[in-house]
Amino acid sequence: MSPVEFEPSVSDDLVLEQKSGNGQHDVRGTHHHRTRMKPEKPIDLLRKVDGNNMCADCGASEPDWASLNLGALLCIECSGVHRNLGVHISMVRSLTHDVRVWEPSVINLFQSLGNMFVNSIWEETLPDDNSSADGSDTSQYLSISKPKHKDVFSAKEKFIHAKVFTTFTTAYIPLFFSNVWGVKNQIISSEE
Questions:
Q1: Which ranges constitute the DSSP H helices of 2-71?
Q2: Residue limits of the Arf-GAP domain (predicted)?
Q3: Which of 9, 26, 74, 108 could be stapled to 78 by a disulfide with Cβ–Cβ 3.0 to 4.6 Å?
Q4: pLDDT score, position 8
Protein backbone atom coordinates (compact mmCIF):
# COMPACT_ATOMS: atom_id res chain seq x y z
CA MET A 1 0.00 0.00 0.00
CA SER A 2 1.46 3.40 -0.93
CA PRO A 3 1.85 6.08 1.75
CA VAL A 4 -1.07 8.11 0.41
CA GLU A 5 -3.60 5.28 0.30
CA PHE A 6 -5.60 4.70 3.42
CA GLU A 7 -8.18 2.14 4.41
CA PRO A 8 -11.23 3.29 6.28
CA SER A 9 -10.91 2.90 10.02
CA VAL A 10 -14.62 2.37 10.44
CA SER A 11 -16.93 0.21 8.38
CA ASP A 12 -18.45 1.92 5.34
CA ASP A 13 -21.97 1.65 6.66
CA LEU A 14 -22.34 2.20 10.36
CA VAL A 15 -25.85 1.87 11.60
CA LEU A 16 -26.60 3.65 14.82
CA GLU A 17 -29.73 2.68 16.63
CA GLN A 18 -31.44 4.70 19.27
CA LYS A 19 -33.43 3.17 22.06
CA SER A 20 -36.91 4.50 22.60
CA GLY A 21 -38.13 5.25 26.07
CA ASN A 22 -39.60 1.72 26.43
CA GLY A 23 -36.29 -0.08 25.75
CA GLN A 24 -37.22 -1.00 22.17
CA HIS A 25 -34.88 -0.18 19.28
CA ASP A 26 -36.21 2.71 17.22
CA VAL A 27 -35.42 2.29 13.50
CA ARG A 28 -36.59 5.84 12.76
CA GLY A 29 -33.44 7.05 14.44
CA THR A 30 -31.13 5.01 12.19
CA HIS A 31 -28.29 7.01 10.64
CA HIS A 32 -25.92 5.96 7.90
CA HIS A 33 -22.39 7.34 8.15
CA ARG A 34 -19.45 7.01 5.85
CA THR A 35 -16.19 7.59 7.66
CA ARG A 36 -12.87 7.65 5.83
CA MET A 37 -9.49 8.91 6.91
CA LYS A 38 -8.53 11.96 4.95
CA PRO A 39 -5.26 11.35 3.04
CA GLU A 40 -2.33 13.36 4.30
CA LYS A 41 -1.30 16.37 2.27
CA PRO A 42 1.92 15.97 0.25
CA ILE A 43 3.61 18.68 2.30
CA ASP A 44 2.91 16.79 5.54
CA LEU A 45 4.07 13.45 4.13
CA LEU A 46 7.28 14.85 2.66
CA ARG A 47 8.30 16.91 5.68
CA LYS A 48 8.42 13.70 7.75
CA VAL A 49 11.42 12.48 5.73
CA ASP A 50 14.89 13.09 7.24
CA GLY A 51 16.16 16.52 6.30
CA ASN A 52 12.93 17.60 4.62
CA ASN A 53 11.94 19.81 7.53
CA MET A 54 14.37 22.40 6.17
CA CYS A 55 15.39 23.79 2.78
CA ALA A 56 17.98 21.65 0.99
CA ASP A 57 20.01 24.73 0.06
CA CYS A 58 19.87 27.23 2.94
CA GLY A 59 18.33 25.37 5.87
CA ALA A 60 15.23 27.58 6.20
CA SER A 61 12.57 25.74 8.18
CA GLU A 62 9.39 24.29 6.70
CA PRO A 63 10.12 24.39 2.94
CA ASP A 64 7.01 24.48 0.79
CA TRP A 65 8.51 24.16 -2.69
CA ALA A 66 10.28 21.29 -4.46
CA SER A 67 12.61 20.75 -7.39
CA LEU A 68 11.16 17.75 -9.20
CA ASN A 69 14.33 17.23 -11.27
CA LEU A 70 16.70 17.36 -8.30
CA GLY A 71 14.47 15.69 -5.69
CA ALA A 72 14.85 18.42 -3.08
CA LEU A 73 12.49 20.47 -0.90
CA LEU A 74 13.19 24.20 -0.98
CA CYS A 75 12.20 27.47 0.67
CA ILE A 76 10.51 30.19 -1.38
CA GLU A 77 13.74 32.17 -1.90
CA CYS A 78 15.86 29.23 -3.02
CA SER A 79 13.01 28.06 -5.24
CA GLY A 80 13.37 31.40 -7.05
CA VAL A 81 17.02 30.63 -7.79
CA HIS A 82 16.04 27.18 -9.04
CA ARG A 83 13.33 28.66 -11.29
CA ASN A 84 15.97 30.91 -12.86
CA LEU A 85 18.07 27.84 -13.73
CA GLY A 86 15.34 26.73 -16.14
CA VAL A 87 12.96 23.78 -16.06
CA HIS A 88 15.46 21.60 -17.93
CA ILE A 89 17.65 21.78 -14.82
CA SER A 90 15.25 22.39 -11.94
CA MET A 91 11.48 22.13 -12.34
CA VAL A 92 10.06 23.88 -9.28
CA ARG A 93 6.59 23.08 -7.98
CA SER A 94 4.64 24.09 -4.88
CA LEU A 95 3.89 21.46 -2.24
CA THR A 96 0.59 23.16 -1.49
CA HIS A 97 -0.70 24.70 -4.73
CA ASP A 98 0.45 22.32 -7.49
CA VAL A 99 -1.64 19.41 -6.23
CA ARG A 100 -1.81 17.56 -9.57
CA VAL A 101 1.95 17.04 -9.57
CA TRP A 102 1.92 15.11 -6.31
CA GLU A 103 0.75 11.72 -7.52
CA PRO A 104 1.57 8.69 -5.35
CA SER A 105 4.58 7.74 -7.52
CA VAL A 106 6.12 11.22 -7.15
CA ILE A 107 5.47 11.27 -3.42
CA ASN A 108 7.02 7.79 -3.07
CA LEU A 109 10.11 8.94 -4.98
CA PHE A 110 10.53 12.02 -2.78
CA GLN A 111 9.98 9.94 0.36
CA SER A 112 12.70 7.52 -0.70
CA LEU A 113 15.14 10.37 -1.38
CA GLY A 114 14.92 13.16 1.19
CA ASN A 115 17.05 16.30 1.36
CA MET A 116 19.85 14.61 3.31
CA PHE A 117 20.36 11.92 0.66
CA VAL A 118 19.90 14.32 -2.25
CA ASN A 119 22.47 16.72 -0.79
CA SER A 120 24.93 13.85 -0.32
CA ILE A 121 24.87 13.55 -4.11
CA TRP A 122 24.53 17.17 -5.28
CA GLU A 123 27.02 18.57 -2.77
CA GLU A 124 29.55 15.74 -3.00
CA THR A 125 31.47 17.31 -5.87
CA LEU A 126 31.62 20.78 -4.35
CA PRO A 127 35.16 21.67 -3.39
CA ASP A 128 35.62 21.96 0.34
CA ASP A 129 36.73 25.14 2.06
CA ASN A 130 40.38 23.95 2.00
CA SER A 131 40.55 23.83 -1.81
CA SER A 132 42.66 26.37 -3.64
CA ALA A 133 41.90 28.05 -6.94
CA ASP A 134 43.62 26.29 -9.82
CA GLY A 135 42.69 28.72 -12.58
CA SER A 136 40.03 26.43 -14.07
CA ASP A 137 36.57 27.60 -15.01
CA THR A 138 35.20 26.01 -11.87
CA SER A 139 37.60 27.96 -9.62
CA GLN A 140 34.95 30.67 -9.23
CA TYR A 141 32.95 28.14 -7.19
CA LEU A 142 35.77 27.16 -4.84
CA SER A 143 35.46 27.80 -1.12
CA ILE A 144 31.72 28.29 -1.22
CA SER A 145 30.05 27.62 2.06
CA LYS A 146 26.47 26.56 2.34
CA PRO A 147 24.35 29.67 2.96
CA LYS A 148 22.08 30.18 5.94
CA HIS A 149 18.45 31.15 5.45
CA LYS A 150 19.18 34.75 6.50
CA ASP A 151 22.02 35.19 3.99
CA VAL A 152 21.58 37.50 1.02
CA PHE A 153 20.00 36.20 -2.17
CA SER A 154 23.26 36.46 -4.14
CA ALA A 155 25.04 34.12 -1.68
CA LYS A 156 22.28 31.54 -2.12
CA GLU A 157 22.37 31.98 -5.87
CA LYS A 158 26.15 31.46 -6.02
CA PHE A 159 25.94 28.33 -3.86
CA ILE A 160 23.06 26.78 -5.81
CA HIS A 161 24.76 27.44 -9.15
CA ALA A 162 27.95 25.86 -7.84
CA LYS A 163 26.08 22.91 -6.40
CA VAL A 164 24.18 22.12 -9.58
CA PHE A 165 26.71 23.01 -12.26
CA THR A 166 29.76 21.55 -10.51
CA THR A 167 27.92 18.26 -10.20
CA PHE A 168 26.87 18.35 -13.86
CA THR A 169 30.38 19.17 -15.08
CA THR A 170 32.29 16.77 -12.85
CA ALA A 171 29.95 13.80 -12.95
CA TYR A 172 27.57 13.86 -15.87
CA ILE A 173 29.38 15.61 -18.72
CA PRO A 174 32.43 13.28 -18.59
CA LEU A 175 30.04 10.33 -18.51
CA PHE A 176 28.17 11.75 -21.50
CA PHE A 177 31.34 12.26 -23.53
CA SER A 178 32.71 8.84 -22.65
CA ASN A 179 29.48 7.36 -24.01
CA VAL A 180 29.69 9.53 -27.15
CA TRP A 181 33.30 8.47 -27.78
CA GLY A 182 32.33 4.85 -27.17
CA VAL A 183 29.61 5.07 -29.84
CA LYS A 184 32.01 6.84 -32.22
CA ASN A 185 34.63 4.12 -31.73
CA GLN A 186 32.03 1.41 -32.38
CA ILE A 187 31.02 3.10 -35.63
CA ILE A 188 34.63 3.45 -36.76
CA SER A 189 35.46 -0.17 -35.92
CA SER A 190 32.35 -1.44 -37.72
CA GLU A 191 33.38 0.43 -40.89
CA GLU A 192 36.82 -1.19 -40.98
A1: 42-47
A2: 40-163
A3: 74
A4: 36
Q: Cα 10–11–12 angle (5° rounding)?
A: 115
SS3 80: helix
For the chain, which domains are there? 1-39 (no CATH), 42-188 (1.10.220.150)
- How far, in Å, CA of 172 to CA of 166, rounded? 10
Q: What's the rounded Cα separation, in Å, for the pair 175 and 58?
A: 29
Question: What pLDDT does residue 35 have?
Answer: 54
Q: What is the pTM of this model?
A: 0.63
Cβ atoms of 165 and 173 within 8 Å: the answer is: no
What is the crossing angle of helices 153-167 and 104-122, to 10°? Answer: 90
